Amino acid sequence: MVQLHSKLLETERQLGEAHGRLKEQRQLSGEKLMDKEQQVADLQLKLSRAEEQVRALMQTLVCSDSGSSLCTLVVMLWFIKFVLMGILFD
User: Fold this and answer.
1) DSSP single-letter state for residue 62
2) What does each C-alpha distance from 44 to 37, 79, 80, 81 come to in angstroms?
């Protein structure tokens, strides 16, 4: 009877430890998720700012009617480079 009681206490202790580890893992997973969500929010803000800059640039560029397609292409390429450089080197 004493051995059974000892085994029961040991099992309860192990269960408590396992529960504590599970709780800690969930907390760490939640923190990692929040970090990823913050990174996404930061990248969305950078993209939004870059889009604003491209809009401003397009408004200030003076393109002739014959060269407007080329001008638009140049601006789009500049925008892609700007965004990629910001993501890769920030």
Assistant:
1) -
2) 10, 15, 14, 16
Q: For residue 54, give the nearest of 88, 86, 20, 12 by alpha carbon.
A: 86
Report field, pTM of the whole predicted structure over 0.90:
no
- pLDDT tens profile 60-73: 665 555 556 677 77
Tokens 């085994």 belong to which residue? 7
The DSSP letter of residue 65 is: T
The closest alpha carbon to 76, from 49, 60, 57, belongs to 57
Q: Which candidate, 73, 78, 70, 71, places its Cα nearest to that of 54?
A: 78
